[in-house]
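Fig. S4 source data, part A: sequence.
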Amino acid sequence: MSTNDISRRHFLRAAGLTGTALFVGLYFPANAKEPKVATAGAVGASGIELNAWVHIDTDGKVTIFSHRAEMGQGAYQSVPQIVAEELEVDVDAIDIRFAPGDRQKYGNQVTGGSSTIRGSYKNLLKLGATAREMLITAAATKWNVAASDCYAESGHVVHRLSGKKFHYGELAEAASKLEAPKNVVLKKRADYKLIGKPLKRQDTPLKTNGSAIFGLDFRLSGMLYAVVERNPRLRGKLKNFDATAALKVPGVKKVFNIQTGVFQTFRDGVAIVADSTWAAMQGRKALSIEWDDTGFDHVSTADIYRQQNDLVQNQEGLSARKQGDPDAILATATQKLDVTYQTPYQSHSAMEPLNCVAWYQSDKLEIWGPIQAPEWVQDFLCPQFKLPREKVIINMTFLGGGFGRKAFMDYPHEASLISKEMGLPVMVVWSREDDMTQGPYRAGITYRCQGAITDGKLTALKFKAAGQNIYHWMGMPKDRANGSISEGFLAPYYKSIANVSFWDVPFEIPIPNVWWRSVYASTNGFAYESFLDELAHLAGKDPLDFRRQYLNDDRCQKLIDKMEEVSGWKARKSGDGFGAAITECFGTTVGHVVKVSRNADGKVRINHVWAVMDCGWYVNPDIIHAQVEGCVLMALGAATKHEITFKDGLVEQRNFYNYIMPRINDMPKVEVHVMENDSDAGGVGEPGLPPFAPALTAAIFDLTGKRIRKLPFDITAV
C-alpha cells in the first residue's frame, strides 16, 4: 500500500481489529528530526502513515504492532513492558503482533546491532503516556471534572475524590476523537512499576505450548516444499545435471537450476521441488550434478592465515583511525611489545535452520519467515523481480535464533525464484549441512598489536588487522578502510593514550562473510583486550588497575569498582587464575572477570564468570541476565570448541558432530550484575560476548603462565 491509498479503515480491517477504538502512533512530519504522536483518525484523511501503533479496543484489549523481529533476545516482552509502564496497564493485557516490512511506515526494521530498545524506547514511552493522557481526558469529560483530578491505573481511569472508574474500553471511542497532546510528562525512573522489574516473558508460554509460529511452522494452502543443491564453492558454476532419478522419487514435482544472490555475486544451484520436505530431500540425494570450479583460488585455512600474517607484518594498509604518532614512539621505545593474535571463522548455527515461504503472483511477491531485516530483503528483491516496493510484502515470524545470519537476503531470494517458476507458494528449507557449508560466516582475522611502555605508562598503541571486510562485500569502495576495526575499543582510551592507530589491511578471498553476534567486537575484543593484559604485565601493573588508569570516565571507574567487588579481585589467592577484560559495543560497556583452576586430574576448568554490564536505562533484568549468559556460552564455544575450516575451497565441518557445541556440563557459573544509572539505553543482546575470550585467556595465563593468542584452543590441553 502506498501513502496515498492507506486509510484508517483499511488498516484496521487488514489488522483484524475493530474500528471503534483508540489508535495512537508515530509519524515524521516533513524535515522533522523527532517523530510526532497522533491518532489514526487525525491523520488518516491526509494519507500520513503511523508506526509503532498502540490500539485499545472497546473491550479494553491493548494491541501493539512491533516493527522488529523476536529471535530470543526478548523484544516481544520488552516492547510491551515499556508501553505498559506509561499506559498503566498490566503487561499480560497487551497483545503484540509483528508488523510487516515497511521502511516508509516503520523506519529501520533491522533487528541487529542490539538496537530495538535503545533505538525506540523513548518513543514507546511517549506513545504509552500519550494514550494514557487521552484516556484520562475522555474520562474527565464524561464526569465533567478536571483531568488533574483523575489518574490511570491497571487499565482504568479513576476519579480521585469519588473513586468512580472507567475501564479503557469504555473510553476508547471517546478518546479516539481527541487530539493527541503535544507534550506529555514521562515518569521518573523511581516511579516505575514495571520497567526495571524481572517480569516473566510473554513468549515463553507460546514457545513451550507450541502456539508460537516460527518460519518452519508456517503453512499456506497448496504450498510446495523445496531444497537446493548449491555449488559448494561460492564462485563455482553449474556445468550440467541429470534429474532423471530425482524425478522418479514419489512427490518430486520439478527440478531446475537457479542463481541466488550473495552480495554482489550469484551462487549456482539446482532446486528440487516436491509435495513434502522429505520428498524434496530424497530427490536431492538422487540428483546427478557436475560443477565447474575453475578460474579462482580454492583456499585452505592454513593459506588464509599465512597470507593474513604476511599482510600485517609487511603492509601498512588503510588508515581506519589515528591520533598522535605511534610509529615515532615505537621506534625509540625500549620497553615494547609486538605480538599477533588470530581468531577463527565461525558459523552462526542458529537452532532453527534457514527457511522461507514465498508466493510470487505476477504483480506481487509475498514472503513469510524468520527474517531479521525485512527492508533489506525488499531492497534486494524489488529490482530482482522488477516490482515496486509496495508489491513486495515481508511478514516476520518468530526466529529460532539469528545472530546476524537471518538478516541476509539469499534464502528469501531462493524461495521467491522457486515460487515464480512453480506459480505456487513454496517453502525453501536449508539442512544443517547447507547452513554450515554455505555460510556466510564470521570472518577469521589476524591482528598485529604493538605497544610501548615509557616510565611505567602506556604511551603508544598500534593495531593492524587483516581479514575480510563485510562492507566490501556489500559494495563499499575497496580503497576505504573498515571503520569497524576499532569496534570494541573503549572511547575513554583515546583521551588518556596520546598515540593510537588502527589499520585495516585489505584481504580478499571467495568466502562469503557477514555479521555475527557483536560483529567485529567479537574478534577485536580478544586481540585488543588480550594485548592490554600483556602490556599491564610488561608495566608491572595489576591488569584492572592498569585499565583503570586509562579509563578515566566515571561510568568505567564504577564498572571496574563493581568488577573488583563482586569477584573478590583484590583478595584472589594463589592456585586460582583470574583474568579480566572490558569491551564496548552498541552503546554498552561490559566487564568480565573469569576465575579458573585445575581439577584433580590437572586439567583447567572455569570456576566462575562475573559479568558486569553498564547498558544505561534498561527494561527487564531477567532478559539481561539471559542474554549475557547466552553470550558467555556462545563465546565459550567460539573460543574453545569450534571453528569453520577450509580445505581446497571446501568447508570441512558439516554438522554438530564436527562443529562441536558446548554441552550443559561445559557451562560455568555465570553471575550477572547490571549497573544502575540514568544514561541513555544501550544494547543488551550482543555486548556480553566480546569480553569473555580475553578474560578467559588472561585467567589461564595467570594460572599457568601460558599466553594464548590463537582461537580456538583446547582448554583441556592447557
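Fig. S4 source data, part B ends here. The first helix runs from residue 8 to 15.
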